[in-house]
Amino acid sequence: MKKYVVYTIVAAMILSLVSCGESGSRTAAAAKDATPKDAAATGSSALAASLAATELAASPNGDYSTMGTLAEESPVIDGIYTAPVEYKADEGKYYLTDLKRRFRVGNFNGKTSKDENFKPVYSAGNSIFGDTEEEADQELYKGFYLTTEIGKIRDYFLKSFGVDTQGHTLFIGYNDGKEDGKNAYGGVGEDKTYSTIYVGKNVSFPCRDILAHEYTHTIQYMHHFVQDVNEKGSEVKIDEETVTISEGLADVFACFYTGKWDLDFTPLGNGVAHRNAANPSGNHKANIHDEVKSSEKEYGYNYATCISRAAYLMSESKAFTKEALQSLWFDAMVSLTAHCKYTDLREAMEKAAIRAKMTGKQKLALANAFDAVGISHFDTAAKYNGDIEVAIYDHENNFYDDYKVEIYRLIKDSRDNGATWNYTTTFVESHDRNKPEPLQLHLDEGTYRILISDNSPGQKIVDYTIAVDPASGKRLIEERNFDVPDSEDAGPGDSDGEAEPEDSGDSDGEAEPEDSGDSDDAAEPEDSGDEAAGPGDSQGESEEDGGDGESSDGFQGLWITFSSMGTLYYFDGGKVTCYSKTDYSAPVSDRHYTKKWTRNYIVEDLSGADGPGRAAVLESGIEYRLIDGSPDVLDCYFLDENNRYQLSGSGSLMRVTDYTIDDLILQ
Ligand SMILES: [Zn+2]
């Protein structure tokens, strides 16, 4: 092997790192770095003692491919610290290198962590590190400790989630002089061909919590989502919510790895103390994402605790096994993208829960935890101007004239023990409509829930959560197909309306439109031209459900939406009933639901790109598609004005298995 081959690799490094400390007060955290000779004098088997005669367990015969007997379990034996090495025969040197895990270890000697300053840790002539003065000057115990501890962290991620550095080398550097040597970093090279963990020269050892945090950053980088977050001090504008999520998730996995919620960052030496997911405010960190902290500069670190607190609350719910909880967070983390926001994290968690086929109880625990830290769907309500026009049409596109509009104000108010948001729902006004024209509303700034319900019994109800913001230009709430299809009266005379098309999107009925952005994913033009029969024909022509209500059409049972925990659907042999809970101040686990309507559906087979599976087709033009490979998720589609099916982004339903319709307390 060529001399300086390691240097050659390192010289190719272009660093892109995340800073993981905080620039706090410069209290000197003098890491009393004992020299190897000092340690030898102590003779104990503690970490420092391992400096003494540091003997590597590599085979001494010069086989550089040998990993050594190493060090997975007990790196310190009788004061002898063992670690994997690579022997380079042409140099006659042993390098502190873990070929199996692809770690290379270097010392920056107090210089800034630039490529050319990375000096691989070595022993010349024999496998005893530190038996010459020159070797001892490398502060070997730091390299050995990092190799061992990061090795365990890497093994944890590999065993738990099946990932490591994905075939790349992880460069582990210590005695970094950057930021007065009081910080630690985890990242990757710019082209993502290698990973890095660098520890400052004034960071004190051991520093396990910090290393687990930094290793998580390397995973994040390899999986993309923080690659646009730049090194501290960079000119590039940092997206603070993304930083917070990145830092929060690094803390979450440090908690998972160490098995404790209170992370100790004091070894950084830069004034950072603890971040405790169980009690963030005890260390002056945020319990809830919108608590304003003193230093905007340290936004990401101060708010990171609201992310780890959500993990803590989920754990406390006892709804998850340890493995399930950790897998859920990992799955969500690696599905995030650059510039992600708090709500993206919640959505990623919800989707991960669906993929993991989690139960309704688990999904509720997830929702509760995120609501408690203020990452709520309420906070992402679509913005509307205070002057709102509600335009309701029948299936012939005439204005509809028999519906009610109820408006509730949502106020995010008190917190339980300072840690959990509550919402108060206050009735504002109600409009009974019997005129075929749009309703004009004026609402003050705030967040509202708007319920629009057909006065014909058992018919459509639509449920909006909106934020009134005078700066918004959005004015129109528009709903179609708001009538009973078989009462054919009006001709196609289409009294149209001035209704601007500005906010198409959620014209679906059952699905909560509260988080707008629906009409994505253009659906196929499969167009069901057939005027789906009237309410009489619950039998449908589907083979499966030949009569008995308990048939196995796959839809049978309770379903719930994520976007609004206030709505449940019960499918039962050709009938679907919607139950709603209008009291948002009640906890989401409260089962007081009111029956809103019942409608018939027929089952049609799905094939082609969608299938195999089935669709429950409602006469309103809405259909719920159930794919065989994903039996616990119903995707809601609605017919748009061009008679094409569109996926309703907020309308997916998840099967509830924890309780049945009989458990609902109906009012
Ligand atoms: Zn960090």
Helix content: 10-25%
Total number of helical segments?
Answer: 10
Secondary-structure arrangement, i.e. CATH architecture of the domain at 523-667: Beta Barrel
E-strand count: 33
Largest sheet: 9 strands, mixed
Strand content: 25-35%
Bound molecules: zinc ion
CATH class of the domain at 523-667: Mainly Beta
Given helix and strand content, the structural type is alpha+beta
Mean pLDDT metric: 70
Terminal Cα span:
79 Å
Radius of gyration based on Cα positions: 30 Å
Using the coordinates shown, work out and report the CATH topology of the domain at 523-667: Lipocalin
The general outline is: elongated
Summarize the structure in words:
This protein has 667 residues and is α+β, with helices and mostly antiparallel strands. Among the domains are: 376-503, Sandwich (Immunoglobulin-like), CATH 2.60.40; 523-667, Lipocalin (Beta Barrel). Helices cover 20% and strands 27% of the residues. The chain is built from ten helices and 33 strands. Strands 1, 5, 6, 7, 8, 9, 11, 12 and 13 form a nine-stranded mixed sheet that branches. Strands 24-25-26-27-28-29-30-32 form an eight-stranded antiparallel beta barrel. Strands 16-22-21-18-19 form a five-stranded mixed sheet, with no helix packed on it. A hairpin with a 4-residue loop joins strand 5 and strand 6 (93-98). Helix 4 crosses helix 5, helix 5 crosses helix 6 (240-258) and helix 8 (322-335) crosses helix 9 (342-355). The longest helix is centred in the first third of the chain and has 22 residues, at 140-161. The protein is elongated, with a radius of gyration of 30 Å. The termini are far apart. Residues 1-75, 227-236, 486-550 and 584-588 have low confidence and may be disordered. It binds zinc ion. Zinc ion is lined by residues 18, 20, 213, 217, 247, 250.
